[in-house]
């Protein structure tokens, strides 16, 4: 059974990398750009669960034109902070995307495997267009050649938590992005 108290929880939070204010400002800008460029077109925002649920919630509220929301579940990390190298789609979209301009909303672009696979899969379903927006990008970690259309923050090769991102399912509820400290017990 997991037994996590506040002291234990806090000691893994090494330092804040991106503050709530910085996230808020970047999302406001991104929402405006989407609203300006997609006005009058059918938009489907597709978020990749679970990590992107917080980003999706804030981004969709920064978009001022009509848009629809869809979810899929893709998993690439199975435990702790190391990448398994396997991407599994555990829940698919319940949408025929052929009549939509799709924007994939992702939390973090790391090795690139998840988005590479998801983009390939969704492109094969012939959306009107397909773009990717990611909150965070760790370019140093890339193993497949993949670039997001928009990335709000580029960060160093550090394992991060908060704002939807987890370590073993915890820390998603932090309102900011922090570095996870693996050195403490
Ligand atoms: P990729 O397929 O390696 O690009 O992995 C992307 C996925 O791995 C993200 O959607 C996250 O769920 C997870 N991930 C990658 N880096 C981190 C991190 O620093 N903290 C938490 N989750 C991460
Ligand atoms: Mg994710």
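^ Assign residues to that structure.
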């Amino acid at each position: 059974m997991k037994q996590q108290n506040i002291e234990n929880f806090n000691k893994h939070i090494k330092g804040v990398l991106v503050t709530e204010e910085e996230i808020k400002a970047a999302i406001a800008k991104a929402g405006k750009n989407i609203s300006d460029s997609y006005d009058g077109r059918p938009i489907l925002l597709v978020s990749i669960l679970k990590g992107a649920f917080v980003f999706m919630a804030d981004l969709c509220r920064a978009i001022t034109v009509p848009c629809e929301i869809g979810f899929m579940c893709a998993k690439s990390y199975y435990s702790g902070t190391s990448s398994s190298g396997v991407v599994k789609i555990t829940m698919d979209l319940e949408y025929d995307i052929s009549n939509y301009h799709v924007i994939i909303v992702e939390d973090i672009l790391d090795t690139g495997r998840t988005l590479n696979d998801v983009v390939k899969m969704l492109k094969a379903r012939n959306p009107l267009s397909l773009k990717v927006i990611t909150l965070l990008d760790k370019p140093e970690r890339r193993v497949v050649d993949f670039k997001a259309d928009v990335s709000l923050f580029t960060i160093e090769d550090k394992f991060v938590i908060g704002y939807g991102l987890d370590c073993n399912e915890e820390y998603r509820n932090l309102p900011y992005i922090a570095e996870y400290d693996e050195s403490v017990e």
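The chain is about 25% helix and 30% strand.
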